[in-house]
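A.,

Following up on our hallway conversation. Structure tokens first:
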């Protein structure tokens, strides 16, 4: 038998319900396998909250590591019939021994909400061997203490789909805020230079040679008239 510890920290992006407006959410933790399931735990109801915080720890005994699943169901508390707002299924065979899996998960299975759930899951004495650089603890409580004294150590183990939102509770600091990244500056590639295109120019005709000859002078009383050049284009006379 292996020991499994789960902490339901909180939720965000729950959204308003169609019937009651602001929801009163709570979480059911269901333990089971492919053949049967059993509700093991139910958190307290967070009244009128879109970003509730519970920070409640559940502990299980796991017999079959290969087939066991932990199912998290987010519900809205109503007077008559409660509304299912989302489901997340966790297979325990993917856990690492003594390393807390700290994550935000997106709930599926219903159109009533697009909520996300903040979970911390620890396989105490079963699972894959941890890496030398992993932060190893013996309990969820030890992990919470490490988060309070050294948040950077916890942030390296946090897997999140986005930055953590504010909870409607003063206990929100106990879940650990994920580290914020530095956005990269956009890189703009320079415009390509236009390619040079060869242009064929036909050969120019050779220049025409200009020749001229004198017009013989005309006799007269007043003497010869001034001679005007007479131009002929083409080949020179033979």
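Then the amino acids I'd put at each of the 238 positions:
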């Amino acid at each position: 038998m292996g020991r499994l510890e789960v902490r339901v920290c909180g939720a965000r992006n729950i959204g308003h319900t169609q019937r009651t407006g602001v929801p009163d959410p709570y979480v059911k933790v269901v333990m089971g396998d492919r053949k049967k399931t059993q509700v093991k735990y139910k958190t307290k109801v967070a009244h009128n909250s879109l970003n509730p915080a519970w920070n409640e720890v559940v502990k299980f005994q796991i017999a079959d590591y290969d087939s066991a699943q932990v199912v998290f169901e987010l519900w809205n508390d109503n007077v008559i019939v409660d509304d299912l707002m989302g489901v997340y299924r966790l297979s325990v065979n993917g856990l690492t021994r003594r390393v807390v899996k700290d994550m935000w998960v997106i709930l599926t299975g219903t159109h009533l909400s697009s909520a996300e759930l903040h979970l911390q899951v620890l396989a105490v004495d079963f699972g894959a061997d941890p890496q030398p650089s992993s932060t190893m603890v013996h309990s969820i409580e030890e992990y919470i203490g490490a988060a309070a004294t050294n948040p950077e150590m916890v942030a390296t183990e946090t897997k999140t789909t986005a930055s953590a939102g504010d909870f409607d509770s003063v206990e929100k600091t106990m879940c650990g805020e994920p580290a914020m990244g530095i956005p990269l500056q956009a890189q703009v590639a320079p415009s390509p230079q236009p390619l040079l295109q060869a242009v064929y120019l036909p050969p120019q005709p050779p220049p025409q040679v200009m020749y001229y000859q004198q017009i013989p002078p005309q006799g007269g009383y007043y003497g010869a008239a001034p001679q005007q050049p007479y131009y002929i284009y083409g080949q020179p006379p033979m």
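The mean pLDDT is 75. Curious whether your intuition agrees with the design.

B.
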